Amino acid sequence: MLRTESAALGVEELSLVIDGAQILRDVTLGVATGELVAVIGPNGAGKTSLLNVVSGTLRATSGRVMLHEQDVTSAGPARRARLGLGRTFQTSYLFLGLTVLENVRLARQAKEQRFRGLWRAPGSSAAALGPIREHLARVGLDGVRHDLAGSLSHGDRRKLELALMLASESTIVLLDEPMAGVNSEDLPSLMELIRDVQRDTDATIVMVEHHIDVVMELAHRVAVMHHGSLLAFDTPANVVTNATVRDAYLGEPL
Ligand SMILES: Nc1ncnc2c1ncn2[C@@H]1O[C@H](COP(=O)(O)OP(=O)(O)OP(=O)(O)O)[C@@H](O)[C@H]1O
């Protein structure tokens, strides 16, 4: 059962114009606490741009961005992160030359630094090791904690990114194509992990994803983007039968 009373993330009449090109057009949607929303749409529809405006790496031309009911439209990425926003990127942002454990430790330290202004050298924070190893165990990577992140498979890198999210205690998580580059045999376990982590933490997740089977399986609601506009925002079952959505995909099955 979805809860809708507490919108964790809201965008209102959001528009983005870059060099005269309308990238986003009047996008309005609200995501409830603990909800998992998938953003789909043809290439160039504006999905990543929407995530960029929500995370603050791009500033909206007009409209509002709300996080936990606070207006962050003019706030930078750091303030948004302090309010609990975390994100992953289409291309991984892990430190590939550091170990799995060091990556999680850095994410934890970055969070502490944001809140307390503390600085510690990587490796000096022995007290934090327990929770860090718990996060690694949660995603099934404790056994490879001393391996370099760069030696992991795509699937395991995505799992490590989820561990970073756990370590940074993000309450709103933006995932940009979490299944990109992942072998089809690794998809089910990664899907299950995203669902479990979301359930355990009650995090709000907005996920751009091209694999429609993943979307159908994981999403509570689906936001369909087309030419920068929000075409539909509904349950997966309703979206696949929506004639306007089918037209946007030129009659191809979703
Ligand atoms: N910084 C920018 N400057 C100019 N144009 C941009 C910029 N960022 C995005 N665009 C354009 O905006 C449109 C939407 O891009 P965006 O990456 O958001 O789409 P997308 O739906 O995520 O696509 P894909 O599925 O291919 O990743 C594209 O036409 C893109 O070329």
TrEMBL record:
SUPFAM superfamilies: P-loop containing nucleoside triphosphate hydrolases
The entry's keywords: ATP-binding, Nucleotide-binding, Transport
InterPro entries listed in its UniProt record: AAA+_ATPase, ABC_AA/LPS_Transport, ABC_transporter-like_ATP-bd, ABC_transporter-like_CS, P-loop_NTPase
GO terms assigned for molecular function: ATP binding; ATP hydrolysis activity
Start and end residues of each ABC transporter domain: 9-252
Source taxon at top rank: Bacteria
Name of the protein in question: Branched-chain amino acid transport system ATP-binding protein
Native source species: Actinoallomurus bryophytorum
